[in-house]
From TrEMBL:
Gene3D superfamilies: 1.10.287.130, Histidine kinase-like ATPase, C-terminal domain (3.30.565.10). Residues 269-490 form the Histidine kinase domain. This is histidine kinase. PROSITE patterns: HIS_KIN. It is an enzyme of class 2 (transferase). InterPro entries: HATPase_C_sf, HATPase_dom, His_kinase_dom, HisK_dim/P_dom, HisK_dim/P_sf, Sensor_HK_Regulatory, Sig_transdc_His_kin-like_C. It catalyses: ATP + protein L-histidine = ADP + protein N-phospho-L-histidine. The chain crosses the membrane at residues 65-83, 89-107, 127-147, 153-170. Residues 1-10 have a biased composition (Basic and acidic residues). It comes from the Bacteria. One of its GO terms (molecular function) is kinase activity. PANTHER family: SENSOR HISTIDINE KINASE RCSC (PTHR43711:SF26), TWO-COMPONENT HISTIDINE KINASE (PTHR43711). It comes from Bradyrhizobium aeschynomenes. It holds the Pfam family HATPase_c.
Amino acid sequence: MSKPAEKPEIVELPADAPALGPASQRRAAQQRVREARDRLTSTSGTRPAFDRELLRQYAQTRISASYIVMLLVVATGLMLSVWLHAVAAGAWTLGVLCIHAAIVRNCTNFLAEQPSMAATRRWRTRFVLLDLLYGVCWMAILIHPALAEVSGTLMMFLMLLVIAVSSMLAANLPVAAVAVTAPVTVAITLSLALSGTFDNYLLAGFAVAAEGYFVLLAHQLHSTTLATLEARAEKDALIGELEQAKAISDEARYRAEAANVAKSRFLAQMSHELRTPLNAILGFSEVMKSEIFGSHAVPVYKEYSADIHNSGVHLLNLINEILDLSRIEAGRYELNEEAVALVHVIADCHHLLKLRASSRGITIHEVFEQSMPRLWADERAIRQVVLNLLSNAIKFTPQGGEIWLKAGWTASGGQYLSVKDTGSGIPENEIPIVLASFGQGSNSIKSAEQGAGLGLPIAKNLIEMHGGTFTLKSKVRIGTEVIVTFPPERVMSALAPLSDEAPPLQPDHAAAPAQEKRRLLRKPIMNAGTGL
């Protein structure tokens, strides 16, 4: 009898790290390839551009400190002439100055030359050899037999001075720093070690430690300079990317603005061509629907005429909405501002749409605050806003639902309008969609009464032109509320009565002498007789 198969062991694989976007992966790959190529083509393990910049800083440092080096060499020559023959000390001083002049001349030529990779390698080798020759000259004078009687402390001081100055000057080129200081350190160390005294042994060890310290210090300065160059290169690269992104965004914005202007011009030019045939269609269809010239032989034609007229009216309204939206977006919609009673406008719109709501069994409630002052606004725009909001509320409220129209004061002293219904509601993620031009939510698509998706965007833009706010709140299966507020600056408060009395219609000649006498009494004494 065969054994039942064992249940296979299920091993949970580790979750993969979230993949980067294509742009990030491409940028990272390009960075790795660029770094690998720079390391392969560079002589120091850094980018070729960094090698050139480090050599440039090295050359500038040597040129700027040339007088200090000359002063050090001349002072050393004068000091050594106490123990050496004057001719030998002068010859050494002249030789070191010649080498120093050669270094300065090569640094000047390097700065004047056009940068190239081959030239950078050649100059790097030349600078290292010149610094090595400079260090050998110092080594030659320090191991001179005539200086055997000089104290080790003085020689140690001279060595520290030389390697300190040389390592600081050649810090941007670590190999040159080692080449210029190592011969001096070797000469002093051997000279002190061969003397056979314990104090000189200690000084020799101190000389080796000082050499290591200054080499590490030069390397640290080189690393700091290299890090600064990398940070500057990254900053320049980031600035370049930002400028490129800005150029791309500016071009895209220019194209979008051009497309928007072209759309606005097209709609403005086509408004007449679209409305003229529609007016003819509406006029003739209304004549046929009303049977002004006699009844139709076939009664169905009357129904067809009514359908044609209703379709034309719907198309004309759609064209008007598109043209209004295009004018608003193009900034050519002008407000015809006047004193407007917000409550009266809402009541008129309610009266216009009351029959449509009643046919659907929808109850509209009015909650208005009394004695509200007028608004300084465009009555046509406010009426269009209220009609759009109330039409949407009736459209998406089921039969037997309720709608509340509210108007009152805001906390800041402005006025507000609220339209709240008990419809199906709008999902929160679809609110930005319905507020966009031609945007429709899922409930609107499923509804039998589909619109163009322009009512809410037009209302929002008209309110923003008045300096107000447009807020849409909605919950699925509970309802939707739209709150429109107008700023306090648009509320026309009643003017207070004037406190000053009105001037008389005719001047009172009897009171004139008394007023003149009072004026003369108030006149300053110092102005008497001056005519002032």
